[in-house]
């Protein structure tokens, strides 16, 4: 895959994400303070205050530390659900495509009902039922993504199944799992990768949005979305408090979008310069 | 009529309280009251008031939140009421005055209350107010056989259900209420504002709109009438020109009141500064300096509000009194009120009963900040290396101020004495629901803010032999101390006041108040609650607003307000 | 054509029933009991039971669902449990506000997205293209709620050009200009994402059409540039409209972030409040509302497609 390494966007995006990711991963070592530590009398301190490079928030906690520690939460919530739903959704999509008939009918109709719910509505409902907390938030988001994965996988698998070599494998007497895994799956992998990289930035923002609405994380755990929501209270007197976490979020989103674009061009040479939302089968714009 | 009689006990209370917090009087509305008395009120104008949440149902018998009550009370009257034209500096709580009842008589055995109703009063829809209307309203709340019975209303007045025997119409201007046993807080409870008020709704309107529809067509006898409600946007009231209590000196003056629900505190402040709102409640404490320097009036005073954690008495850690006391010594309330809340709250260091109540005693020194003592108590109780527990609170909610930042402060305080307090929070409605149903079984303590002007609140909060709800009403920690319950029972069953009793204006006697104060001391010493602070209920308004009286209650009246 | 419409209608109904079942059960799965909250802190179990009965919540779930569905089919969605206001009345006002926000955002997004996209498509790698790609990247990477906050800081606080929240000035006449003035910032904030998506999509669609043989043939035949451009755009329309329609549908609920930041009294906020406070009737009604609208948007897009794309028409 030499193209990937040569694409400037992927390099730049990859570096930024890697740096931010590593910093947040190393938060226990790199963070100057405990993100929950309150500095009495030093609330809403501006940028560049002695000892607090990015200032302090409305409760008197160091913003830099909270951004680093919060990154662990935000990045995990934005990426793990996509991975998990890819795994589950691929299985279900393959099963639906391969077995057909009533299995396919059931799965697809259920997904269609879920599709009728706008994404955010589904997330709100899932969060209301499951409650707060990182695990519940990730479960809610996984539920929300799965229908899209299933539909994409199902469509791609169906078209692959028409291919002669698959028919040949069936005639040879290969078992269902063998066919699904070694004949069909490899052919849709590149579509899945494109899907994953294009959906990831959407979900980073989306999960921050859910935390912003107060549906995802329990305070006082820091997370970029919550920091923005809480900082909104002091927007008049200390605008840097909600702005700083948003800048980091923006950087991550831009980088991931760049990576997504690069990957898409690399893996779909025929659709070079074809952005997200172009192929309705791959990723129906939410 | 503003009452200038300074009750000596309460004056001491307020002065001591002011000295303790350092800047209460300096930032109160003293000059505001002076203005109200010297300037001549002008009639007319529209005031825009931004409050902290969307009101729920505009039905006085069943409204759920304090914010809704503040709105509903403008349209309705009760038989007796607190004098909302008396500022908090003139005594806490305000004395009771006759409203729809001109005067009342209590029988010597405390079982019979006679109310002499005001004559010539009409509801907003023209219906005459009389004893039948009073009975109709009481039946709606209490009488399950009445066609107008409303289950939700009864649920809010559960304590009265326990004591109330019957309501009799003697003649069109006299109503007799008979109790099952002496209960000297009865008058105060009749006058209480907040969720479930015993206000008088027009029977004609109730019959016309039904129990649910009446909330969309409020019809009372109050100084203001309902105009419209656009859910999520505004509620509009207008002056009632036929108000029975209207006069050129005391109002009502305003033509219109526009009430806007604005749930974001920063947005309320922004709107005030931009001139969109004339008056707001619950401003962002951090905006205090800025608003005062821009010429806005910052009005606050002591009210019957207690922000606390109720220890879960079924948790083995908290069975030891020393542990509970240690928690109380570990919190730096002064710093919290001063630093985080800019002195918009009052540190609770004089007992469980807050300054807005009659049984408050400013000379009673309870838990000050003493981390060394806290550590010592913990060690004595068998936790020399500290302990670990989980506390819960809500993320917002009526009267909760900024619960999570406050809780995080307390968490930091506790950590310095070795207590690892894990904090969990949830959104208000689900939190309150769980709290009411005793759902917090596995936590160390659950936070709540509550209060009422009448001392009986103490028994509802920590009493166990008197169970109002099935899970213990407000006593969600399952605290039970029969000795204190005995004192509280004696307090509420004490004889009605004789003539000249300093507490007669509240329907209580000197011995009753003394007993309540004793119960307060006993309870504080036993520490069923982690005391934190008492809200000072700040309002902020622009220079055009005159005549707003900051009462010693969570409530105020628009009647005396005028724009100039 | 008639059979096609009939099938679509049946499918529509099936989805609606499915949706209503999901929301009905989901609301009852949310932990906690709304009656407890409504009854207040002093209620006894007996009093709570009486209140529960008055709301019909003591019957089995299936019966509740049947009653609700029957009434809903007649247009009666019940009353809000917390406000006693009829649900339809409550929702229509909010819906109008959300539609206003969506319309405003789509207007801005289409204006910027289509024009920049088309121009970029005609001159790829030019200056406009580079600007367009940056704008698009920013649009899809900006969190709407944060962008809204930035706009407030910049244009409502530092430069007091626009109001910071609400839909009308409290003292204003509530007239059209007042509303538009309040609409501007929220619309810009909400427009960022759809603008980015549509910009890229339009650009691609135009590029693809231009690469097609018939376009080169027309150019070779000497068709003037402007007429050629019209041909290209007309052929690119199906894809462009497809994406635009889907973005508009998405915005119905995605607008919730702007609604929160700007205190814009819309449907998203209402749903969120109803679900979290367990106001069953409002949540059920609101979700039904939204899903109907969402489906309607998709149906409209599906119906319009054959009009613009003869290939589908013939199929």
Report on the structure:
By secondary structure, chain A is mostly helical. Chain A has a single domain, classed as MetI-like (MetI-like fold), CATH 1.10.3720.10. Helices cover 71% and strands 0% of the residues of chain A. Chain A is built from 11 helices and no strands. Chain B has 564 residues and is α+β, with helices and mostly antiparallel strands. Helices cover 30% and strands 19% of the residues of chain B. Chain B is built from 18 helices and 21 strands. Chain B has helices at 8-21, 30-38, 66-72, 131-142, 151-156, 158-163, 186-190, 203-213, 265-274, 288-293, 321-329, 333-340, 371-380, 403-416, 428-436, 456-462, 482-492, 510-526, and strands at 46-51, 80-82, 96-98, 101-106, 112-117, 164-171, 174-179, 224-230, 234-239, 256-261, 279-281, 297-299, 306-311, 345-347, 387-394, 419-426, 445-450, 529-535, 539-541, 545-546, 562-563. In chain B, the strands form 5 sheets. In chain B, strands 8-9-10-1-11-19-12 form a 7-stranded mixed β-sheet. A 6-stranded mixed β-sheet of chain B has the order 14-18-13-17-15-16, with helices on both faces. The relative contact order of chain B is 0.17. Chain C has a domain at 88-267: Orthogonal Bundle (MetI-like fold). Chain C contains 14 helices and no strands. The longest helix of chain C has 36 residues, at 87-122. Chain C is globular. The mean pLDDT of chain C is 85. Chains in contact: A-B, A-C, B-C. Chains A and C meet through α5, α6, α9 and α11 of A and α1, α6, α7, α8 and α10 of C.
Q: Which key features would you list for this structure?
A:
heterotrimer; A: 286 residues; mainly alpha; MetI-like fold; elongated; disordered C terminus; B: 564 residues; alpha+beta; 21 strands; globular; disordered N terminus
In short:
The complex is a heterotrimer of chains A (286), B (564) and C (315). In chain B, 30% of the residues lie in helices and 19% in strands.
CATH C-level class of chain A: Mainly Alpha
Uncertain segments of chain A are 272-286
Main β sheet profile of chain A: none
Overall pLDDT level of chain A: 81
Give the distance, in angstroms, between the N- and C-terminal Cα atoms of chain A.
30 Å
In helices, the fraction of residues of chain B equals 25-40%
Major sheet of chain B, described briefly? 7 strands, mixed
Number of strands of chain B: 21
Oligomer: heterotrimer
User: Structural class of the secondary structure composition of chain A?
Assistant: mainly alpha
How many separate helices of chain A?
Answer: 11
Which ranges of chain B are low-confidence, i.e. pLDDT below 50, for 5 or more consecutive residues?
1-36
Order of helices and strands of chain A: HHHHHHHHHHH
């Amino acid at each position: 895959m030499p193209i990937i390494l040569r694409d400037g966007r992927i390099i730049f995006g990859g570096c930024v994400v890697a740096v931010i990711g590593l910093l947040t991963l190393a938060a226990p070592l790199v963070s100057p303070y405990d993100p929950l530590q309150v500095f009495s009398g030093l609330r809403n301190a501006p940028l560049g205050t002695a000892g607090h490079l990015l200032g302090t928030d409305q409760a008197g906690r160091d913003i830099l530390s909270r951004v680093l520690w919060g990154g662990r939460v935000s990045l995990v919530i934005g990426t793990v659900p996509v991975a998990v739903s890819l795994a589950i959704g691929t299985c279900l999509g393959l099963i639906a495509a391969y077995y057909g008939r009533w299995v396919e009918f059931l799965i697809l109709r259920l997904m269609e009902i879920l599709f009728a719910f706008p994404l955010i509505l589904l997330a709100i409902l899932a969060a209301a039922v499951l409650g707060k907390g990182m695990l519940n938030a990730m479960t809610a988001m996984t539920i929300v993504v799965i229908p899209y994965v299933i539909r994409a996988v199902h469509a791609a698998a169906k078209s692959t199944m028409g291919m002669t070599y698959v028919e040949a494998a069936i005639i040879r007497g290969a078992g269902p799992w063998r066919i699904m895994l070694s004949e069909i799956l490899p052919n849709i992998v590149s579509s899945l990768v494109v899907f994953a990289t294009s959906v990831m930035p959407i979900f980073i923002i989306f999960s921050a949005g859910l935390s912003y609405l107060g549906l995802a994380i329990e305070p006082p755990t820091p997370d970029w979305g919550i920091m923005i929501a809480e900082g909104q209270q002091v927007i008049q007197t200390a605008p840097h408090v909600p702005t700083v976490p948003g800048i980091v979020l923006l950087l991550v989103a831009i980088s991931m979008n760049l990576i997504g674009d690069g990957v898409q061009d690399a893996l779909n040479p025929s659709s070079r310069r074809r952005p997200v939302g172009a192929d309705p089968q791959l990723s129906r714009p939410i | 009529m503003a009452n200038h009689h300074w009750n000596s006990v309460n004056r001491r209370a307020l002065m001591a309280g002011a000295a303790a917090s350092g800047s209460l009087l300096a930032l109160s509305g003293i000059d505001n009251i002076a203005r109200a008395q010297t300037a001549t009120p002008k009639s007319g104008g529209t005031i825009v008031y931004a409050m902290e949440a969307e009101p729920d149902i505009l039905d006085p018998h069943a409204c759920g939140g304090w914010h809704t009550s503040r709105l509903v009370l403008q349209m309705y009257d009760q038989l007796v009421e607190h004098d909302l034209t008396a500022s908090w500096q003139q005594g806490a709580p305000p004395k009771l005055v006759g409203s729809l009842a001109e005067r009342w008589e209590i029988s010597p055995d405390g079982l019979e209350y006679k109310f002499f109703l005001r004559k010539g009063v009409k509801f907003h829809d023209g219906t005459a107010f009389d004893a039948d209307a009073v009975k109709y309203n009481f039946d709606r709340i209490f009488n399950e056989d009445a066609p107008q019975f409303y289950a939700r209303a009864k649920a809010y007045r559960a304590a009265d259900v326990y004591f109330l025997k019957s309501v009799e119409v003697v003649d069109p201007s006299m109503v007799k209420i008979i109790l099952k046993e002496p209960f000297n807080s009865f008058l105060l409870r009749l006058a209480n504002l907040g969720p479930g008020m015993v206000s008088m709704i027009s029977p004609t309107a109730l019959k016309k709109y039904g129990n649910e529809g009446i909330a969309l067509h409020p019809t009372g006898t109050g100084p203001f009438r309902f105009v419209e409600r656009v859910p999520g946007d505004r509620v509009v009231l207008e002056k009632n020109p036929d108000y029975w209590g209207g006069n050129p000196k005391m109002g009502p003056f305003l033509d219109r009141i526009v009430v806007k629900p604005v749930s974001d505190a920063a947005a309320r402040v922004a709107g005030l500064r931009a001139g969109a709102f004339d008056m707001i409640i619950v401003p962002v404490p951090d905006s205090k300096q800025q608003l005062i320097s821009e010429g806005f009036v910052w009005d606050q005073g002591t009210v019957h509000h207690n922000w606390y954690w109720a220890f879960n008495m079924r948790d083995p850690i908290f069975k030891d009194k020393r542990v509970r006391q240690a928690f109380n010594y570990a919190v730096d309330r002064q710093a919290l009120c001063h630093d985080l809340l800019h002195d918009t709250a009052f540190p609770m260091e004089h007992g469980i009963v807050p300054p807005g109540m009659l049984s408050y005693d400013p000379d009673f020194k309870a838990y000050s900040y003493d981390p060394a003592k806290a550590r010592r108590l913990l060690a004595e109780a068998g936790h020399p290396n500290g302990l670990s527990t989980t506390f819960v609170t809500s993320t917002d909610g009526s009267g909760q101020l900024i619960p999570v930042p406050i809780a995080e402060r307390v968490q930091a305080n506790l950590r310095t004495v070795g207590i690892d307090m894990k904090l969990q929070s949830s959104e208000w409605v689900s939190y309150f629901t769980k709290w009411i149903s005793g759902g917090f079984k596995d936590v160390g303590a659950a936070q709540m803010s509550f209060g009422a002007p009448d001392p009986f609140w103490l028994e509802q909060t920590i009493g166990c032999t008197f169970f109002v709800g099935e899970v213990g009403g407000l006593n969600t920690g399952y605290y039970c101390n029969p000795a204190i319950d005995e004192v509280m029972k004696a307090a509420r069953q004490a004889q009605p006041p004789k003539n000249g009793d300093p507490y007669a204006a509240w329907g209580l006697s000197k011995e009753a108040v003394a007993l309540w104060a004793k119960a307060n001391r006993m309870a504080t010493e036993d520490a069923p609650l982690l005391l934190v602070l008492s809200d000072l209920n700040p309002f902020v308004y622009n220079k055009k607003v005159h005549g707003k009286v900051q009462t010693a209650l969570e409530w105020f009246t628009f009647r005396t307000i005028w724009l100039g | 054509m008639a059979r096609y419409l009939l099938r679509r209608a049946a499918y529509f109904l099936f989805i609606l029933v499915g949706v209503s079942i999901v929301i009905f059960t989901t609301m009852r799965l949310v932990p906690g009991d709304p009656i407890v909250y409504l009854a207040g802190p002093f209620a006894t179990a007996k009093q709570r039971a009486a209140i529960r009965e008055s709301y019909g919540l003591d019957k089995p779930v299936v019966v509740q669902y049947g009653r609700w569905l029957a009434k809903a089919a007649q247009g009666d969605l019940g009353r809000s449990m917390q406000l006693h206001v009829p649900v339809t009345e409550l929702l229509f006002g909010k819906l109008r506000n959300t539609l206003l926000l969506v319309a405003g955002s789509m207007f801005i997004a289409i204006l910027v997205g289509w024009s920049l996209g088309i121009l970029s498509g005609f001159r790829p790698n030019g200056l406009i293209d580079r600007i367009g790609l940056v704008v698009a990247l920013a649009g899809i990477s900006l969190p709407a709620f944060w962008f809204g906050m930035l706009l407030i800081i910049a244009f409502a606080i530092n430069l007091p050009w626009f109001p910071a929240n609400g839909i009308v000035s409290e003292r204003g006449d509530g007239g059209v200009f007042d509303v538009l003035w309040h609409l501007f910032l929220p619309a810009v904030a909400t427009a960022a994402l759809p603008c980015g998506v549509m910009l890229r999509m339009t650009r691609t669609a135009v590029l693809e059409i231009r690469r097609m043989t018939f376009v080169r043939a027309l150019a070779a035949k000497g068709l003037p540039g402007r007429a050629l451009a019209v041909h290209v755009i007309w052929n690119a329309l199906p894809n462009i409209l497809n994406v635009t329609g889907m973005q508009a549908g998405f915005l119905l609920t995605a607008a919730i972030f702007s609604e929160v930041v700007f205190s814009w009294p819309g449907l998203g906020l209402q749903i969120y409040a109803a679900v979290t406070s367990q106001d069953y009737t409002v949540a059920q009604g609101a979700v039904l509302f939204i899903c109907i609208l969402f489906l309607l948007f998709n149906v409209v897009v599906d119906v319009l497609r054959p009009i613009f794309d003869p290939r589908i028409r013939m199929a």
